[in-house]
């Protein structure tokens, strides 16, 4: 991963990249969502600071940057932490507790890792490599074809950073629905199971990290292309949402996460509660009412008096 040198737009750009990297590490490897949010917030605050930060003390004066992050930033400038950031999963702990110093060494100690961490270690180099947009497009084609082969009713859309138009993605996020699955019909665990089973059968899905009734997290890989191009292993997230909740689902799953937070805040100001399933009016009692009818993402923006933003305008 490349870090930009400080530039005139953001004199702390390299610090911001570093914090974003730590944030993603906490999210993707350690699943520490709280730490992830803390780092994201710090990066965002720092990106708006007009001058180059030169000391931990100075950093700590900023809103959202505490002792720990201030210290980390200063250690980062001395280059010590740059090495540690590259090491995945339980590695940091092992580095400290067992004296294991490299990925290669760690590969001989997999007994200390759980299933999820083993997958992370096995594919750690691949997972660190961002997915070019063109490859996500090919993945989309594969997924659409397999959905169709199962049942014409499936609707699948890749959301996340890809739908926001990003030139590369950290993972692939597909949202699924099916007309026979509604909030009234109740859970249909077989619908997602059938998809994953099919994708495993074709060899496209190679690993499962976690698998619930409505959410699959795993690993996929495209078959080698005719011209010999070999693809990397990629993180794949699948979610199935009831048909009548599809647009709240696509809005949520398209993000960005910060955009979602902002929009949920605006909804609350306007007296609505918005989540990945529904938008509901908040009564004067503070108890949410019945879900409002939603026929499109535009409807959701309309309810809360917000000008519609295309996915590419949601990169916050
Ligand atoms: N999401 C959210 N809040 C979270 C996590 C996720 O609102 N804490 C939503 C918004 C994200 C979407 O889910 O855009 C997909 O999550 P990802 O972690 O895959 O994020 P992106 O796809 O946006 O970025 P990346 O390219 O890193 O995958
Ligand atoms: Mg994503
Ligand atoms: Mn994802």
What does this 3D model show about the protein?
This is DNA polymerase. This protein has 316 residues and is an alpha+beta fold. Helix content is 46%, strand content 13%. The chain is built from 15 helices and 9 strands. The strands form 3 sheets. Strands 2-4-7-6-5 form a 5-stranded mixed beta sheet, with helices on both faces. It has a two-stranded antiparallel ribbon with strand order 1-3. It has a two-stranded antiparallel sheet with strand order 8-9. Strand 5 and strand 6 form a beta hairpin. The chain is globular. It binds 2'-deoxycytidine-5'-triphosphate, magnesium ion (MG) and manganese (II) ion (MN). 2'-deoxycytidine-5'-triphosphate (DCP) binds next to helix 11, helix 13 and helix 14.
- Low-pLDDT segments: 80-87
Bound molecules: 2'-deoxycytidine-5'-triphosphate, magnesium ion, manganese (II) ion
Q: Please, how many helices? A: 15
Strand content: 5-15%
Question: Largest beta sheet, briefly?
Answer: 5 strands, mixed
Helix and strand run:
HHHHHHHHHEHEHEEHEEEHHEEH
Radius of gyration: 21 Å
End-to-end C-alpha gap: 21 Å
Global mean pLDDT: 88
**Biggest sheet, strands in spatial order?**
2-4-7-6-5
| Helix/strand/pairing category | alpha+beta
Based on DSSP secondary structure assignment, what is the total number of beta strands? Answer: 9
Oligomeric state, counting identical vs distinct chains = single chain
Percent helix among the residues? 40-55%
Shape: globular
EC number: 2.7.7.7
Organism: Saccoglossus kowalevskii (Acorn worm)
InterPro entries: DNA-dir_DNA_pol_X, DNA_pol-X_BS, DNA_pol_B_palm_palm, DNA_pol_lambd_fingers_domain, DNA_pol_lamdba_lyase_dom_sf, DNA_Pol_thumb_sf, DNA_pol_X, DNA_pol_X_beta-like
Catalytic activity: DNA(n) + a 2'-deoxyribonucleoside 5'-triphosphate = DNA(n+1) + diphosphate
């Amino acid at each position: 991963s490349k870090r930009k040198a400080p530039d005139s737009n953001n004199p702390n750009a390299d610090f911001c990249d570093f914090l974003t990297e730590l944030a993603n590490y906490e999210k993707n490897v350690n699943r520490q969502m709280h730490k992830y949010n803390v780092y994201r917030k710090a990066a965002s605050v720092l990106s708006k600071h007009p001058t180059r930060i030169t000391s931990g003390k100075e950093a700590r004066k900023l809103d959202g940057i505490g002792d720990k992050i201030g210290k980390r930033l200063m250690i980062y400038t001395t280059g010590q932490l740059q090495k540690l950031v590259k090491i995945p999963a339980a590695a940091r702990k092992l580095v400290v507790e067992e004296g294991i110093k490299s990925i290669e060494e760690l590969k001989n100690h997999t007994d200390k890792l759980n299933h999820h961490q083993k997958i992370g270690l096995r594919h750690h180099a691949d997972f660190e490599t961002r997915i070019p947009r063109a490859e996500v497009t090919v993945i989309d084609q594969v997924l659409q074809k397999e959905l169709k082969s199962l049942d014409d009713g499936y609707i699948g859309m890749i959301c996340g950073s890809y739908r926001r138009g990003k030139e590369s993605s950290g993972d692939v996020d597909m949202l699924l629905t099916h007309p026979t699955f509604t909030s009234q019909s109740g859970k249909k665990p077989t619908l997602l199971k059938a998809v994953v089973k099919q994708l495993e059968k074709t060899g496209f899905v190679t690993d499962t990290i976690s698998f619930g009734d409505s959410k699959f997290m795993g690993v996929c890989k495209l078959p080698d292309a005719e011209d010999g191009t070999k693809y990397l292993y990629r993180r794949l997230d699948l979610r199935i949402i009831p048909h009548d909740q599809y647009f709240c689902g696509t809005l949520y799953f398209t993000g960005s996460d910060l955009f979602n937070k902002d929009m949920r805040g605006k909804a609350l100001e306007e007296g609505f509660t918005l989540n990945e399933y529904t938008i509901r009016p908040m009564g004067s009692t503070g108890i949410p009412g019945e879900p409002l009818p939603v026929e499109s993402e535009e409807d959701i923006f309309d309810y809360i008096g917000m000008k519609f933003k295309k996915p590419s305008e949601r990169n916050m």
